[in-house]
């Protein structure tokens, strides 16, 4: 087996560990939510209370996650657990633009009520395009035009034509 | 006959046809933007129709409606993001086909399937509106709950590479639908004291977050390709209008079955296009000789989904015209527009205003033709989207998603929800969970819970689910569906094991 095949196998095994962790997380959350649903007051007007349906659902999640854990654990060799952290770092480095995009979106959404839709969108669009684009004068110019059109332009379209007013901000 | 001619004479005027053309374009464009639904497009059109004649106004709104169902396929095929909830299943095959270098064929196929779906539903509407409306209204909560149980078995077809993860995703969708006040007594549940969660998770925000944000994030996973200015879709873009029309027509069984599913589901109040496309896709997959091809860009998947969702437009009018009961939010708005003009919608509508009803039938057919012309001519423009590099399209579509999520309720807190659900959706996608079952769970959860509790409030005897004939029929169909799915998965596993053994030896 070549080195690249070994790396791929290791990456698959570490992927299984990540999924196993997700099953455990869902199992724990569903257990907690099951009991929380049991605390919802019932009504004398109906057989099932407001908590009954959620309890069915969370019991189902708990059961299936338990089955998933039992089926997954034997598939993972012991050596893979030691590689989890290293492989996670490698994956994060490879997909760094995903984190850039999601972080930019998060900052944009939080800043919008203060900056207003137009200004926040202008900064978000131009900033994210700069992070993603192949740098040249031409692409930077296009990015600037796109940022203006889809921030101030979109705001004008919604306000003047659809009478839908996007957040104005405090500035 | 006189009524038919009066209706036709009102539709075939230059003014009405021009308004319908504008409506069709507006519907296609609105639904093509992720986050903007057909309902939103119709709501925005409603005030514009107040000054029109009643039939003219309804015709314009029907044009928006029919155009909107088709427009959803544009972002589904080109971006892998359902433009509207009714085009979720379209992403399964149209997107892989577009990614395989056949973006034009994928769009063209969707347009033709939508056209035929609308035409078939109009024919069914004309022939079967009164009897179907009578059947639809006789269904009680027992039948509705059993129908939803049957619809939930579709999850088995949508699980993707892992049955277990598909089931977990479906159940997470159901769990998400329980957030907020309960649908019967309004008791608050799982809102953690947050005002935003008191009314539940808005479905559209969940859809945009789960599908759009996670899809956009996954587009930039390969940093090298993004930085080199790569486009969304590569390969020659050819619309192949007539060739694809023949290709769609060579699938008559799939086309008719999917359209009838769309009509029937559309006729049930509360169901609609968001379920019809998934059910039609599921049935096409189950009856296919090659079910494994579904999800890889097969034409049958696109035909089933698009014919199914477009046919709900006609189906939804059945209870409205026959009984005065709106089948969906869009039908309620159509009803409102008639009431604004002083026309009461109810069982007497067809007797008192037969020219209007026949006019609506004609308007549906004309709207589908206008949609076909507009779509055929404009798809070349839409296909230009595929040529835009990812570094532009990803941030711009994110902005559209944000605007769509905000415009729904004009609430900033919905934007925070969008961000959180987007990150959650990307995590699920990265871990190999299929997202379609989750969306199905969110759609079906409230309908299942409401009808289960309503049935048991009406009569505490749970055996009624099995003793009422239509309810029993749906439950039997659900059992058959599960057995069929298990058989399919076992067969697939055996084939894979055989291939693995053959490769090893």
UniProtKB/TrEMBL annotation, chain A:
<feature type="transmembrane region" description="Helical">
    <location>
        <begin position="20"/>
        <end position="40"/>
    </location>
</feature>
<keyword id="KW-0472">Membrane</keyword>
<feature type="transmembrane region" description="Helical">
    <location>
        <begin position="52"/>
        <end position="74"/>
    </location>
</feature>
<protein>
    <submittedName>
        <fullName>Tripartite tricarboxylate transporter TctB family protein</fullName>
    </submittedName>
</protein>
<keyword id="KW-0812">Transmembrane</keyword>
<feature type="domain" description="DUF1468">
    <location>
        <begin position="24"/>
        <end position="167"/>
    </location>
</feature>
<dbReference type="InterPro" id="IPR009936">
    <property type="entry name" value="DUF1468"/>
</dbReference>
<keyword id="KW-1133">Transmembrane helix</keyword>
<feature type="transmembrane region" description="Helical">
    <location>
        <begin position="140"/>
        <end position="166"/>
    </location>
</feature>
<feature type="transmembrane region" description="Helical">
    <location>
        <begin position="95"/>
        <end position="128"/>
    </location>
</feature>
<dbReference type="Pfam" id="PF07331">
    <property type="entry name" value="TctB"/>
</dbReference>
UniProtKB/TrEMBL annotation, chain B:
<feature type="transmembrane region" description="Helical">
    <location>
        <begin position="20"/>
        <end position="46"/>
    </location>
</feature>
<feature type="transmembrane region" description="Helical">
    <location>
        <begin position="465"/>
        <end position="486"/>
    </location>
</feature>
<feature type="transmembrane region" description="Helical">
    <location>
        <begin position="391"/>
        <end position="408"/>
    </location>
</feature>
<feature type="transmembrane region" description="Helical">
    <location>
        <begin position="356"/>
        <end position="379"/>
    </location>
</feature>
<keyword id="KW-0812">Transmembrane</keyword>
<feature type="transmembrane region" description="Helical">
    <location>
        <begin position="415"/>
        <end position="445"/>
    </location>
</feature>
<keyword id="KW-0472">Membrane</keyword>
<dbReference type="Pfam" id="PF01970">
    <property type="entry name" value="TctA"/>
</dbReference>
<dbReference type="InterPro" id="IPR002823">
    <property type="entry name" value="DUF112_TM"/>
</dbReference>
<feature type="transmembrane region" description="Helical">
    <location>
        <begin position="58"/>
        <end position="81"/>
    </location>
</feature>
<feature type="transmembrane region" description="Helical">
    <location>
        <begin position="255"/>
        <end position="280"/>
    </location>
</feature>
<feature type="transmembrane region" description="Helical">
    <location>
        <begin position="141"/>
        <end position="160"/>
    </location>
</feature>
<keyword id="KW-1133">Transmembrane helix</keyword>
<feature type="domain" description="DUF112">
    <location>
        <begin position="17"/>
        <end position="440"/>
    </location>
</feature>
<protein>
    <submittedName>
        <fullName>Putative tricarboxylic transport membrane protein</fullName>
    </submittedName>
</protein>
<feature type="transmembrane region" description="Helical">
    <location>
        <begin position="109"/>
        <end position="129"/>
    </location>
</feature>
